[in-house]
Amino acid sequence: MGTNGSTVLEPLRQGLPPIDPGAVSTSASCALPARYEAVRGARKFTSTTLDRWELSERFDDVALVVSELVTNALRHAVPADAPQEEGQNPPVRLHLMRWASRLVCAVRDPSRESPEARGGKEDFAAESGRGLFLVDSFSDSWGWHPLAGTLQGKVVWALFRIGPE
User: Fold this and answer.
1) pTM to 2 decimals?
2) Fewer CB within a 10 Å sphere, N or C end of the chain?
3) Would you say 15 and 90 are in contact if contact means Cβ atoms under 8 Å apart?
4) Distance in angstroms (rounded) separating the CA atoms of residues 45 and 33
């Protein structure tokens, strides 16, 4: 039986550019509570993980994207009255995956709603609605897919090229 992590990420792997499975070096994930302080925790987790992977020079761009993805998940995908019982699957989970030449940040949330980038000049100036524009600007590509099987929700991911292609 596969773990939840592999089930969550299988469609992600299928949606990415061709990657040699043997080139996967490592991955890490953390559960995030459905509170806005989770963004700080996600940034700290990202910093620690990138340091361990000797990619700390990419922290600024990656942390900005992680912050936006987590904020979007908390703002748009987690119901305000979501139960916060101990031992349950957390509503939001951050996955970081590293290949030889790519780094992927993926945020799982309980909603199947499509993430939407807002367009137009009036929206660009607004604080809300810029998140996916920033994700698009600071990552090399991004996308999303609904979860399959018994898992409810979706995964929104962003890819960064690192090292030689």
Assistant:
1) 0.77
2) N
3) no
4) 13
Instruction: Please say if the pLDDT value at position 150 is more than 90.
Output: no
Helices 59-72 + 37-52 axis angle, to 10: 150
More confident residue, 96 or 87: 96
Q: Is 40 exposed, middle or buried (0-12, 13-18, 19+ CB in 10 A)?
A: exposed
Distance from C-alpha of 105 to C-alpha of 137, rounded to nearest angstrom: 15
Enter the tokens of residue 37. Answer: 């302080």
DSSP 3-state of 87? coil
Of 124, 131, 19, nearest in space to 77 by CA: 131
* Contact residues for 147 (Cβ-Cβ < 8 A; gap 6+): 7, 8, 11, 108, 153, 154, 155
Q: pLDDT tens digits, residue range 104-124?
A: 999 999 888 888 755 544 444
Tell me, letter by letter, the H, E, C secondary structure of 126-153: CCCCCHHHHHHHHCCEEEEEECCCCCCC
Distance CA 59, CA 65 (A): 10
Q: Can you tell me whether residue 109 is helix, strand or coil? A: strand
Task: Give the tens place of pLDDT for each residue, 18-42.
Answer: 445 555 668 999 999 888 789 999 9
CB 145 within 8 A of CB 154: yes
Report the C-alpha gap between 162 and 105 in whole angstroms: 13
